[in-house]
Amino acid sequence: MEAAPAIHPATGKGSMTVPGLGRSLKSEEMIINMGPQHPSTHGVLRLELIVDGEVVVDVIPHIGYLHRCFEKHAEHMTNYQQVIPYCDRMDYVAAMNNDLGYAIACEKLLKIKVPDRVEYIRVIMAELQRIASHLIAIGTYGLDIGAFTPFLYCFRDRERILDIFEQTCGARLLYNYIWIGGLSHDIPPTFVEKVKDFCRIFRPNIKELNDLLSYNKIFIERTANVGVLPAEVGINYGASGPILRGSGVAWDLRKNDPYSIYDRFDFEIPTGKGLMGTVGDCWDRYMVRVHEMEQSLNIIEQAVDRIPAGDVQSAVPKRIRPDASEVYVRSETPKGEIGYYIVADGTTSPFRVKVRPPCFVNLSVLPAMSRGAMIADVVAILGSIDIVLGEVDR
Amino acid sequence: MKEFLLNLLHNEIIVYSLMAFVPLAWVVPFALFAVWWERKISAHMQDRLGPMRTGGWHGWAQTIADILKLIQKEDIIPTAADKTLFKLAPFVVFVGSYAAYAAIPFSAAYIGSEINIGLFYVIAISSLVVVGLLMAGWASNNKWSLFGALRSAAQIVSYEIPVALSLLTVVMVTGTFDLQAINRAQTGYFWHWLVFQNPFLFIAAIIYFVASLAEVNRTPFDLPEAESELVGGYHTEYGGMRFALLFLAEYANMFAVSAIASTAFFGGWNSPFGDFLSGPLWGAFWFISKGMVFIFVQMWLRWTLPRLRVDQLMYVGWKVLIPFSFVLVVGVGFWVMIFR
Amino acid sequence: MIPQEISDKLKNKFGDAILESKTDGVIDPFIKVAPGKIEEIALFLRDSEDTLFDSLMCLSGIDYTKGKLGVVYHLHSMKWNHKIVLKVDVSVEDPHCQSVQSVWKTANWHEREAYDLFGIIFDGHPDLRRILLPDDWEGHPLRKDYQVPEYYNGMKVPY
Asked: Do the chains contact at A218 and B220, CB–CB below 8 Å?
């Protein structure tokens, strides 16, 4: 059962004919299940791999193991605010960004304008959450590749962010913090100082992470030239977020379709440039996340000094009864572009809430990226897409 | 030690059994210690503490507690597994690593069996491990275990060649396969050790160490047991004491290759300070310390480096290490010819 | 291009396949289209130079009650940075709609989801099967008149 003689599509090495036999061997293809329980599938995802030795001929993802009927629940809520805890639980590692998208969509529906203080705090929370989510992505990606140590370093830094969140709203993972029209709690007095401390401590840690993992020769060999996603294929598949930016497309909703007050801050959009291999390979996607963490630090440092005074609950409506209308709003979560399509019918509960999750769409590109790769590469590619099954399945 | 025991007991069978028991008396406590040590090293490298409570001081009794737990576990064998092979595989793996201890001298006074093809025997018998791994992977009736076993077979067999070639350079310089004789050839101060005798031997030591990492399935070559892809590779389906035996075999193997590295290149049981602190018991001390240094480096590498993919691993073995080893063999040959 | 221009352009090309278009008074202007023509219209919108809708942001199913289902397409152009919404209405008795997965590959999974949750059948889809629910689930949950089944494979469903 050795791998049949074949030309490896990524490296071009090998030969089709068997020496002495004069023709190529036929080999059985095998179906392997990277089942719902697997250390590397980042949740309950079943990948059916059709392999020919070690080379993957096709990947068929099976999702739905974590389907919790978010959209049906949303229709039965008696209040638009009650949907927010459900939004948290979709992408549970980046809950703030999910809430933000939903809150902005509802505010557009209700034509509410939130005070500046709320906007600034929302931006800081969203960016801190972006760093926290990218830390998980980077840490677990290192773990998939086999480097055990960066995982713990990333989690150590993530703990600091979660401490800040816990001080503000009492929760570490699922916050129910960003409400329609405002926030659930105002920031504590030590918030600004703690955030500045975090920024000061975290910047050198990014450099440490780069020394340990990003520029490690073995890591580069495992991820460069693996799982290349051409830009047009990515756009056609609807990919967004770091995986599209890794393919060189400078598209970030915070700059190209600004929402909230992102147009008041000065930051860059990192894109993949193919420094270690081809544009759009796993290394590029990974490095985009590392650079995005730095850019988020820039935004946080600019925002935290300028939080205006005010009341975070002043614009929270007592009764949410929008007119019969509908709206589609999208925002940039750490995983990509999340879209909320909300249809209101004039009552206090939503008629239809449809979420367009970034991970769901990004996962659909996996088969196109992994044909011809090896099994170990499938793990690397899946890790570089950075999915959270809560969001894929809702 | 053999003569001493023969004079005491006058019964060859008992004496030889006792001699064979000595490495076991070393390997089992060593494995207990090494597991604890690995957990502490990995913890401190990862900015955490590791076991702290079991037994009091830094959780020294953690492994003992784990073994007690594993002994109590239910023995689960998958229904469709090949029962005989499944039960036999851990023993074959352990025997493969343990049999190598027969020819490794722990000190000037103790060697299990002083055969004059010692090094050759050690390399050959430790290949038995491959058979055991393949048995484990196949008998588990699990596609992932099978993958792990296949990868490990390919890896170990490929890396036997740089191992053998780099040890061949040692044989060329000392003129003998017998490990005790190789040790005696390095008596003196630490600059008499073979690793410092000529630059080719220095590189041979490095190549041997890297290739031996592949022999024991340690990161960066731990694809056969790649936790993040194959769950556990060939030992996925093993639980309880069978798993403990496979684990013990892995640590025994680690020490065996470290022991060979220290014997062949770093002076074995010789003291680095000449006559100071040397003698039969001091010899054992030096030998074990040098082995532990290599074990530490192996653990250090495991927690620092990511793992290589299987084709990259084969590339490193066949296209990098083997050509270099050939160059080294030729180079050492010329050196010996010119400088003797 | 502003939505009114897009609507005019479509009306010129496709005539009465364009059933309705509402470009002011709503937050998101939309154009209602016949279900049998949606693929052609989608291809036209994707490929013609001044619209260039190369990205399908979202494809949602929706149950309007009173025997009417719908599919809503949110399109976006990366080059011109404009958006438009297309809507298709189908009836519960004959819930067929053309598939646009040949135009935008992302529609593949979105249409599977709409089929799974609403029962809208997309003609021309290469692999239309359930995506979120188990393959042998009965019923389409997001419809307003959906009754939760008592048992599924011997397990009691209402908790």
From this structure: yes
